[in-house]
Amino acid sequence: MENPPGLGFKPSESPTGLNPAENIDPVLTFPELSLEIDVKPRWWERVRLGKIALFSASLYLFIVAINLMKSGARGITPFIHDLGIISNATNSLGFGWLLAYIIMSGSPVAAAALTFFDAGVIDELSAFTMITGSRLGASFIVLFVGFIYVLRGRDRATSLSMGILSLNVTATTYLPGLLIGIILLKTGVLDGVQLPDGALLTSVVDTTVEPFTDLVADFFPYWVIFLIGLGIILISFKLFDKCLPQMTLKESQIGWGSRLVYRPVVMFILGALVTMISMSVSISLSLLVPLSQRGFVRRENVIPYIMGANITTFIDTLLAAVLLNNMAAFTVVLVSMLSTAAASILILMFFYRHYLTNSLQFVNWVSSSNRNLAFFMITIFITPVILILI
């Protein structure tokens, strides 16, 4: 059989001029036919030993810090009484609020409130209000991140609105929660709710932590010990932040989830989960600024997220109460969590539409002019100062 017209090779030959019987590498001959086999690493190959080490170090430092602050607080009790800074529940509310501004975090301040209570510096109600103040001050970090974005040339209204909204939602849920919490504390309905005996945890702490804390106590005065503990707890949170996986958001990844952000229940649960995993409301709320800049979330969708975040942020404070082995301190934290949850759920169930409209109007008013923004900034800084002076 002859070749058809126009074809210059024999049937026994390939178009490339090579013998088809020869062993031809299809990848070299036809690169477009090459296949890449994606071999997934086994589970033990995906374990990040560095992350585990960082988490272990952050947990150990957290426990060390709580014990140092506990020892320091007991020693500086007369000093604090003489100063009269924290003499009632109103003072402690303002003190916790202002201190959270200064150190840009609420969790260390909440831990300090528990150690003050454990040492007898403040009473149960003052510990509760100081923890509430620490959470009011912690939301300022979102506004601070927004200012950084403005300095980098980003849109002012978008950058600042998340911070203003976070402060507004936190204040309008924690303050009603404050009233609910006072009722719960006064009636004592949660006094009998406690975790199982932490004897094993106490034994581990005594063995691994106390030798170090005793060594520090031998060399420094009590007020320095307390400050060392406060510094170590900040370091422990920084290390814990590094343990978290680095997430990159792409349009293809967020597309399926963009429909979920319109559901308040989903956003409420998401805010609670993100904060519970990161153990920092500052982190979970600060994420809102870059997400809003990239158009993934809008102001009207994040209110339930902020509410959920403000509830599970008490997880690390609960751990601090357990480490102190103080039943009353655990009750204070539990009341803080449940009262905030009750206020948030009531708003979501019965007043959400009205609450959403008023919150967005307030944010628009604050960000509409420099004068309004200045008035807002002066108010949130002078309020805790006034509370301290009352």
Write the layout of secondary structure elements.
Elements: H1 26-29, H2 49-75, H3 77-83, H4 89-103, H5 107-119, H6 124-138, H7 140-151, H8 156-187, H9 199-208, H10 210-219, H11 222-243, H12 251-254, H13 264-278, H14 281-286, H15 288-293, H16 299-312, H17 315-324, H18 327-350, H19 352-367, H20 370-389
Helix pairs in contact: 2-5, 2-10, 2-11, 4-6, 4-20, 5-6, 5-17, 6-8, 6-18, 7-8, 8-16, 8-18, 8-19, 13-16, 16-18, 17-18
Helices and strands, in order, run as HHHHHHHHHHHHHHHHHHHH
Any low-confidence stretches, pLDDT <50, length ≥5? Answer: 26-35, 247-257
- By DSSP, the count of extended strands is 0
Largest sheet: none
- The pLDDT mean sits at 76
Characterise this structure.
The protein is mainly α and 390 residues long. It has helices spanning 26-29, 49-75, 77-83, 89-103, 107-119, 124-138, 140-151, 156-187, 199-208, 210-219, 222-243, 251-254, 264-278, 281-286, 288-293, 299-312, 315-324, 327-350, 352-367, 370-389. α2 runs antiparallel to α11 (222-243). The radius of gyration is 28 Å and the shape is globular. The termini are far apart. The model is unreliable at 26-35 and 247-257 (pLDDT under 50).
